[in-house]
Amino acid sequence: MRSKELFIKTIQHEETDRVVVDYGSTSVTGIHVLVVEKLRRHYGLEQKSVKVIEPYQMLGEIDDELIEILGVDVVGIGPPNNMFGHPQENWKPFKTFWGQDVLVPQQFNTSSDKEGNLLIHPGGDLSVPPSAKMPVRGYFFDAIERQHPVDESRLNPDDNLEEFGVWTENDYNYWAAQSSAAAKKGRGVVANFGGTAIGDIALVPGLNLNDPKGIRAVADWYMSALMRPDYLHQVFERQTDIALRNLEKAHQATGSNVDVVFICGTDFGTQDSTFCSLETYNELYAPYYKKMNDWIHQHTGWKTFKHSCGAVEPFMQAFIDSGFDIINPLQINAKGMDPIALKEKYGNHLVFWGGGADTQKVLPFGDPGQVRDHVKRQCEVFNKNGGFVFNTVHNIQANVPIENVAAMVEAVREL
Amino acid sequence: MKELLDQISCCIEFGKINNQSPYPPDMKGKDGADELTLKALNEGLNAGDILNMALIKGMEQVGDKFRKNKIFVPQVLMSAKAMGAAMAHLKPFFSSGDVKRKGTCIIGTVQGDLHDIGKNLVAMMVEGNGYEVINLGTDVGADRFLEESEKYPEAVVALSALLTTTMVNMETIVKTLKDKNPGVKVCIGGAPVTQDFCDRISADLYSPDPQGLVEYLNQLHTTNAAN
Fold it and tell me: For residue B169, which residues of chain A lie inside 8 Å, CB to CB?
């Protein structure tokens, strides 16, 4: 139970005698399935087809063997269906473009376009148009935009809410069972109940929907913040109402088995700026985050998790004011994201979950010695006075040399 | 005349597409880039003057403000829409040769990468600054870039990548293009791309923002014009 104890101390900003570690508890702190296979080989584990637990980004399962070997302190539980609407069950073999044998859910049904790119279909239904594409030379999927022409006079917020619904009894039972099983692992538990992300551009295209309506194209969605702010408010307000009802059910179903709730992965940062102004964040997004975070803090013991890539230093105080407890992934090479300054300014108010290794430069293109030095330096800064969960800056990508991943794991272990 | 050109420029800068567009709120109900460009042409203004004194002027402001983080992606997208509306009226003059553009830029996201928002922002700013843009889309391999570069040997080629797994494909593309045409200028950009990487793969320019590419193209244009 030591992992659990250290994890709880960490998210309560208490100092611990070692760094607490996450590899794979969420869809933004995971490892590409190719690297997972290499990790298994590196540590002498049985060579088997790795499960793709998140098919959009092709993230591999960190199973109990790897959890032990990597010293993982927190595990995740996710929804019954993946982003394409496939139930995460009845795993079948699949060969990837890069020649890897993996396991995918039964409904992971694909077709090809004339260039040979892989097309994936919502709900596994090959009779409806594909919702995402993996290029022949790619390592994961990206959305295919299926935007109907927008008729402003007929825009209905319900069209952008098709994917959000109130939990059924089956959902309730699913989460109760999942959280109970996760709690028995003796580690922290982070739950991604779904439905709480406000305007996440990865979800806007409606990858699990047969025929998404409303505003579904990325550029149109971004412009809607200016052209149709009232429409977005209506979508967010109704979505939040549904989310609050589900959070109440989630609390009844999972209670103290869950420690952290993944609220939102909406990216507000680019490499050197923010996606919108601070005023837009405060006006359009913050009220809904605050409603959800306040409810959680008033009714549960859960901590709330916010993910945003990029140069979001100008938004950090606003994230705190919105009621978030945890920020991820701390993109330390983005503009203004200086680890020391961030820790000093916001470290007492936000748990830093990530930022332990740069995934744009050092991890893929450095050597093991550089990785080791970099990781130790990051941990020294972020773990000071507690409140730090080690993870890389976003998922570990397919091209990262296994020697560098191993160097990172060992460096953290030595701390 | 100047007043009308200034109005068009203002529409580009602030993203006022047409009369129906509700954005920006303080221009609601007024004519946008669409109607005003048509009006300017109907009043006999020269298409080249509209391009140079309205569109380019407005887009320079957009590029400058975006670089200084005074405006953000949504505002730039609105300006792009406004520029597209104006440009639709000018296209016949480009086709007929009545209006000459400053040069040509071939742009695309490299093989294996499907991200196009950033690349399209760059394309739009380059076009709005008076260049013909040949946008090859996403997941573009070396052969496709080469094919287009051979059609337009004077064109500058701009490569975009968002991923560490795909930026490495830039090296092959740069080499393929320069092997065939050593004089071709190749520019690179995208979140993981750096000046070091640019130097290593012998590309001609790395720019962290669209305005950097526009400035580079303008420099080449000035140099070529002087020669």
Answer: 137
